[in-house]
Design a protein that fits this description.
Length: 731
């Protein structure tokens, strides 16, 4: 399946629902039914209610509907209204009960990349205040705090820091440079329609930066059926959150949506009694306005703006009985983020060239980041521009397609730390070509190459290959290989360095990072008692040829940033099973193994600090008839991780060799009504925390102070509740 422009710019949509007809004549919704073009260039699956939305195929291309146990259906003509597709049962599986089989997370069966689709149903299984909390029920992505004072979170994919995976918002690069520090928390959960997580190298269309994978979040669309949405969230730690969305169809061609978010926390909490706030006092305002224009002649445009203003204040608590005032005064942290961005996406389907289309994306952003940690004062400003022009077309027939185009990225970053300042200016024009061969029901082969010129690092060649082969109708094998590069921004990508008393020393100028990623996966669908079980097994290896590393172990007075002079690699293996065990209960279980190692400055090869050696996950999702009641339970089993060697420090400030294995449990209940719902839950139900996460908290200006050695939860049990109100447009 070619990753065509249609997935980038969007085109006229066909919406509807897929039903199954039982022998009694009763119609039941078919969740996770396949809806795809007959050329297999595009495909989606239905949501838990059997509903779908897909780009309209070009002339001569049909739309196919299929579901296990039912006869497939094909339509060739499309009306402007909503489609209602009714599939007949096959004789051999007529007794299969479909009700309750909905899976809000699934592997994209048509994509040659190993891509997991996280739908709106999955996003509602937890409080999901923002993107960083959207992966609590996901086995592939880990989210951890970077330190114990800033509140910043980072993801890990394939055992490596999230900066090695490319984060996109509506297929536009997002968390780059200064945005990498807090960007995960700037996408409210209620704004998102879906998330796609691809492992390994992604397609060359979006650039050379994805090394371990790609995460693309899709916002709610102006043309969607939701007209008004309101959400209020409150937890016992003092966080309040308000979200409001409003959409309108101004005409048959023009629609718009406004998204708003406001949150604050005014409560000083110190559960571990170390004198430091466990959570920052914070305030965030986040506003967006998106527009869409759709012409029946094949032209579509999307454009919009988004602005954000956030402040965080933390550190020692005034008048706390657990604080001994230092001569330097209280140790405080202050963080301010201000960001503005605008984009325009244009797409056009050529009516006289079946299967041909063009898409053009342009985006601009400005980001200001100011941080104070004790005596460390950092300031940064980034101005970025991104442009992507892509042409998609078939060769002789629809089995052979290609994508070709031009990218341009520009980053102008000014940074200062204490009495030092520097500027990074980077321009990257590039071209790419990608060929896709599809033999329906058997093999998909996709090979791409891009050539870029980086104004700082010269010419870069990026080859990537993806193959999907159907061993049987229900067994698929995927393999991928390719190079990836990225420009490091050491401080915003590692802000925990500023929360230590040790000075930061650069032994080398930052250099371009380069890695080779290889992956293979097997996905098997098995019919068990008339229900479909999904079993997947995967293995990925990432090997770095060039990398910027941080030495926090060899010196008690300094941390060193240095270039790799040895080995650095990651082995990642995962097995996952999902199954609708009972009529209203879906169970998913997974186990992942990490082996991440890197050479120290002295050449010794050791496990990378603060990366767990395994993670287990069990989730159970219950929903009653008509989803009036919902209950979700998630258990995470986190293995040990190597802790930084602090044997050179005095005994009270040394650490064990490994962190302990531990278990984290989340629970949520929801009661749904026609236009509103209430929910309540608990995060970290067992109240497990990392004891004394701040080293030398009693004397923060001593040379031993460090808040960046985080391997477990900093906050204990959190109880929360909320209400959602949703009003749909009239048909």
């Amino acid at each position: 399946m070619a990753l065509a422009m249609l997935s980038v710019a969007g085109y006229a949509q066909i919406t509807g629902a897929v039903y199954g007809k039982e022998p009694s004549g009763k119609l039941v919704s078919l969740p996770s039914a396949n809806v795809y073009w007959s050329t297999r260039d595009q495909g989606v699956t239905t949501d838990p209610k059997g509903q779908f939305s897909i780009q309209q195929p070009p002339p001569g291309v049909a739309l196919v509907f299929s579901y296990v146990g039912y006869k497939s259906d094909t339509i060739h003509e499309f009306s402007s209204g909503k489609l209602e597709i009714i599939l007949e049962e096959t004789a051999e599986l007529a007794a299969v009960n479909i009700e309750g089989l909905a899976s809000s997370t699934h592997i994209d069966r048509l994509n040659p990349l190993l891509s997991q689709q996280i739908g709106s149903g999955e996003l509602q299984r937890a409080a999901c205040c923002n993107l960083s909390e959207s992966f609590e029920t996901n086995a592939s992505v880990d989210v951890n705090y970077t330190d114990a004072v800033s509140g910043s979170k980072q993801i890990q994919l394939l055992g490596l820091n999230g900066v090695y995976s490319q984060l996109l918002i509506e297929n536009i690069p997002f968390m780059r440079g200064l945005g990498s520090a807090f960007g995960l928390e700037y996408i409210p959960g209620t704004w998102m329609q879906s998330i796609s997580v691809s492992k390994g190298n992604s397609a060359v269309i979006n650039g050379y930066e994805s090394i371990t994978g790609q995460i693309n979040a899709e916002f709610k669309k102006p043309e969607a059926k939701e007209k008004y949405f309101f959400n209020y969230y409150l937890n016992d730690a003092g966080r309040h959150e308000f979200n409001i969305n409003a959409a309108a169809d101004l005409s048959k061609k023009v629609s718009t949506i406004v998204l708003g978010h406001y949150s604050f926390n005014n409560t000083e909490i110190d559960h571990n009694k170390d004198g430091f706030m466990d959570m920052n006092l914070s305030r965030q305002i986040n506003l967006a306005n998106f527009w869409q224009y759709i012409s029946p002649k094949g032209l579509e445009m999307r454009w919009g703006v988004r602005v954000l203003d956030e402040s965080r204040n933390g550190g020692q608590i005034s008048n706390s009985p657990h604080v001994t005032l230092s001569p330097e005064g209280l140790w405080k942290s202050a963080i301010n983020n201000r960001r503005g961005e605008a984009f325009v996406k244009t797409g056009y389907i050529f009516k006289n060239k079946p299967g041909a289309s063009v898409g053009f994306i342009n985006s601009f952003s400005v980001h200001q980041l100011d941080m104070l940690f004790g005596h460390n004062d950092y300031s940064g400003q980034q101005r970025s521009f991104y442009s992507n022009l892509i042409y998609h077309a078939p060769f002789k027939d629809s089995k052979h397609t290609y994508d070709a185009g031009f990218n341009f990225m520009y980053d102008d970053v000014d940074e200062s730390l204490n009495d030092s300042s520097w500027t990074t200016n980077e321009m990257v024009p590039g071209v790419f070509f990608q060929y896709t061969y599809t033999f329906p029901e058997k093999i998909t082969f996709m090979a791409g190459i891009r050539e870029d010129y980086n104004s700082r690092f010269g010419w870069l060649t990026t080859p990537r290959v993806h193959v999907k082969y159907h061993l049987t109708e229900k067994t698929s094998l995927r393999a991928s290989a390719g190079l990836g590069y990225r420009s490091p921004y050491v401080i915003p990508e590692n802000i925990s360095l500023l929360t230590s008393a040790r000075k930061l020393v650069f032994l080398n100028e930052p250099e371009l990072e380069q890695a080779l990623n290889l992956g293979i996966s097997l996905v098997q669908y098995v019919n068990v008692f008339g229900k479909e079980m999904m079993i997947s097994a995967e293995y990925f290896k990432t090997s770095f040829q060039h990398q910027m590393l941080i030495d926090m172990e060899s010196d008690t007075s300094a941390m060193y940033v240095f270039s790799l002079n040895g080995k650095s690699y990651s082995h990642n293996a995962q097995v996952e099973i999902s199954y609708p065990a009972f009529k209203h209960l879906e169970v998913r279980a997974a186990l992942r193994y990490n082996d991440v190692r890197q050479s120290l400055r002295n050449g010794e090869l050791l496990w990378k600090p603060l990366v767990s050696n395994y993670k287990g996950l069990v989730t159970m999702a219950f929903s009653s008839n008509m989803k009036r009641w919902q209950a979700d339970l998630t258990a995470q089993f986190v293995g040990k991780s190597r802790l930084p060697d602090r044997s050179l420090f005095p005994l009270p400030y040394q650490l064990a060799e490994f962190s302990p294995a531990h278990t984290i449990i989340h629970l949520q209940f929801a009661r749904n009504f026609k236009n509103w719902s209430i929910y309540a839950g608990a995060e970290n139900l067992t109240n497990f925390v990392q004891h004394h996460p701040i080293i030398s908290a009693e004397n923060p200006y001593s040379p031993y102070f460090d808040s960046g050695v985080i391997w477990g939860p900093v906050m204990g049990r959190k109880i929360y509740a909320g209400v959602k109100i949703r009003i749909n447009k009239k048909d």
